[in-house]
User: Fold SPD2B protein from Elachura formosa.
Amino acid sequence: VYIIKVTWSSGGTEVIYRRYSKFFDLQMQMLDKFPMEGGQKDPKQRIIPFLPGKILFRRSHIRDVAVKRLIPIDEYCKALIQLPPYISQCEEVLQFFETRPDDLAPPKE
Assistant:
């Protein structure tokens, strides 16, 4: 689980918790919704950032994989919100960063 501090343009801040699978789901939604910006027709036109790929690993390596993804996940979030507003402020991105009920009772570990 990644802990993300979200600062809205209004100045409000919130802390949210997201699993890698939720980032992956968002990425798939973005590539489906914006195929040209995702580079599906012309890879040179891709502006949607790359997300580190899924990794198969043993349970004992979960923390190591999460730590290795920390910087790429941070870079992904920063690049995502720097995109043109029609992407960075689309419903999928806004919903991803909004506080959810499970963010109010965060994981214990």
Q: What stands out?
A: The mean pLDDT is 87. The radius of gyration is 15 Å. Residues 62-81 form the longest helix (20 residues).
